[in-house]
Known about the structure:
single chain; elongated; alpha+beta; 6 helices; disordered N terminus; 11 strands; 33% strand; 241 residues
Amino acid sequence: MFARACLIVLIALGIGSCIDGHEEIWIGANGSGRAKFRYEFPASALGWYGGEAAIRRELDALITKNDDLEFLSYTLGRNDDRIILHINAGFDSPWDLTRFSTDWATTSDETKSAASPFAGENSLELRGRFIRVHRIMDWSKALPGAAFVPASRWQGHKLITKVHLPLPAAESNATRSENGGRTLIWETAVAEAIRQPIDIRFTAPVPLRNFLTPVLILVAAIVAVIFFVVYRTRRNRRLAS
Length: 241
C-alpha cells in the first residue's frame, strides 16, 4: 500500500501536462452512426496503466470483442510528453455503442481497465418514442495523484463531448446546443472533472418512421392472421355443408 501511494505521488510530481479529451458522436435517422474519440494524457502516467504495451493489448482485445461493429480502429502515439489516443467506431444502433463503451471499461477478465474512467458508466433505454441516455465518467481515476497536481496545470484543459442527433433533443443537461437542438455539447474543465464525476444526460425522440415500422409490421401480421382464420373458418363451413 505504501509503495502504491509513493508511485501515485511520483507520477503526479512528474506530470508536465494534463488530460484533454474530445468526443464526437453522429447518430443517423435509422439509428446507425459513427463516433470519434481523441484523448491526450501525460506520458508519465503510462507506468500506472502498465505501459504502452498494456494499453495496446487492451485496445486490441476491445477490437476483437466488438467485431460486430461496422468498424473499429485506434492509433496510439506520442507527442513530446503527451500520449495521444484516437479511436474511431461505426455502429448500426446506439445500443451497439453502449455495449462498446461497457466492453471498453472491462476489456480484461471483467476487471476495470485503464480506459474505464474515459468510457464511464453508460445506460440507454427506450421509453415510448424517446430514447434516454445517461453517462457518468469519473476522471479523478484517470490521473493518479490528481490531488498533488498544482491547480495552475489544470488551466485550459477540458473534455468536450458532442452528440449529433437526427431530431432535436427533448431534454438534456448539455452546456449548450446548436443546429436547432440537434447538436448537444458538453464542456467540462479538468479542474472540475477531478472534483466530481462528469454527468451527461439527454432524451431524444426516435424518428417517426423508425418507430412506426415495427408497429406497422406487427399490425400487418395481426391482420394476416385474422384474414387466414376467417378464410379457414368460412372454407370449413362450406366443406361441412
